[in-house]
## 1
Amino acid sequence: TIIGGSGNIGRWVADFAHTLGHRVTIQDLGKSPDLNPDWSFESDFHKSIKNADVVVLATPMQITNGLLIDLSKSDTKAIIVEVCSLKSPVKVGAQKCIDNGLKFVSLHPMFGPNTETLFEKNLILCPITKEDKTYDKVKKFIKKTPINLIEIPFDKHDSFMRYILGSSHLINLI
């Protein structure tokens, strides 16, 4: 299930999952008229996660934390994946998911929704706990793709990104 699946990143995730042979359900506020007919659509958030194996939150950062808090109160067995470019705004929701025993994964794709191939693209995996079988499972899956997997602890991600983005802006000024 892709929450926010009508947006750019949501569609990319849905296309990727569908290409790999997975069943795709889009949950969003409205059904896009050009939705892939092979995908199902569910407007109700709770119904969309009921039988999901994986729930990807491809939503704006300002609402992702609230969705994570809602998910933390659910009895879902799905792996919950968030893909925000900053982690501090979703820290409370992420921690609530973990505290309530949900399988949670934080990713940061370092590529945009127009990406057609994963070859030489970077994906940041942001573990929150030191040992986590869910992260190991996701890591094993990702390693089957041509993507470069980079691990940065969840609590260090934002400061690392400030350094990287600041450096690229500085280089452009020189």
## 2
Amino acid sequence: DYGCTDATAINYDASATCDDGSCIPIQLGCTDPTACNYDTTANTDDGSCNYPSTSFYTINECNSYTWNGTTYNSSGTYTYSTVNAAGCDSTAILNLTINNSSSSTLDTTVCNSFTWNDSTYTQSGTDTYITTNASGCYHTDTLSLHINDSPNTTVVLGSTQVGFLQQETYSVVQ
């Protein structure tokens, strides 16, 4: 029987007794045409195939998010393409939710003192109070306070003087 008598050849024929020169040497490599390192000359897969990769990221962030050198200020789906360590295409997909910080301002004028967020103020000025809003981002409350002191006004009623807007009472002896 004629055939390939080389036991290391891919088409070795154990029943062949006479070599006919048809032996095909084993050529190791990646035999998967979907791999990025597909070897058209390989006839035996050696497990070295490398494939394109895709990765997914889901991020919730306040105000903005910087990813692969780009800053995003709005929610959306973003794609970044590069080459992976194996030399194949790599696609990263970002599902981004941007939540916003919030703020409010209270501009008020009062007499003598004002209590805000467990603090009592006796002088005009501005203050801030920072908390977290429902989205998990900063919420900044700003107080713009104007304090008018009560005047030391005295009202004369007959023969009695009464301090106006004070807690003291004065009597006049005639």
## 3
Amino acid sequence: LLLFALGILAFLPVTRCAFIWDDDAHLTANPCIVGPLGLKEIWTSAHARICPLVLTTFWIEHRLWGLNPLPYHLVNVLMHAATALVRAVEADQAAARARAEDASRALARGQELRGQGLLPQADFDGLRAAADAAARAAHRRSRRREAQHLDGQDPELRGGARPHGNRGLRSEGR
């Protein structure tokens, strides 16, 4: 959430801006948005100068608030902040997977050394316990972060698979 808030804060000055650069070609003077053409032409003709999905968003926004630049800028800032948040979650999950993979590789190397008689059983047991603990911690952290960002919307998480049990959740039939 901090990343989301920082993304919004960084772009707040845009709320005082008008349309700029190529906004006339894509929005304010685009016949698909403000002229005689419309949504159908955005997806079926060469009049759409950029990605049809972007122009469809502009078309919807134009229907909602006309050519007032503030809402367009706010939607843009929120989309960028949401994208940063999604990327942060993905990076966190990738890091958790990498930690688990590192632990797995260490355990595999330990098994190899143990099989060659180069690693005493007690040391191997310690390595196995450490690798298992690292993998569990990485998994718990990943699930906890996912649960925080999804706010319980994931059906798997809603069913009680949260990292710390069912604290605060009601089971069906209670």
## 4
Amino acid sequence: GTTIQVVLHARDLGSHLNTGSIMVSPTLTNRFKDATLIVNRTARTRFCHDIKCHIIRAKGIQKAVYGADTSPVNLQTMQTMRISIANAIAPTSRIRSVDLTFSATAKGKDMDPNVVIITNRVTTMRRMLVKHPEAKSMVEDNWKCYNELGHLGTLYAPVDLIEKAPNMMEQSRH
């Protein structure tokens, strides 16, 4: 006979679907690389700081984080993009803190793709809990699992932020 091909990961609706135990997302990684090129091109323009920030937010960050709600992020690629954004919006230095650069120079919404991804994931989870309250016990079980495995505060399990989401959801209803 005929052999059946086993697919461990595939692109699906603009994101990436994993069926195996290893979480990969080449689709998202390529998006981050393309977005980093956009940020680097924007950095070389003569636009003022505010316009550069606007272009990076509207074009670069949005391109990079599309699909990051459901796919694992390559941390090295994200860090490369974070450094490119910091170079575009602030003077460069060998002893500069990228986190401090984002805090001090970003005007308006956050310029850090890490923060944007976490915010999007929490927002998505809150929407899911409002639409499907029966899923609350499943979400709580997942939190306990991540806590037991020690993934607190990581990009893959921002539990300290997510744990506040049901309370924030309850407060927003009243």
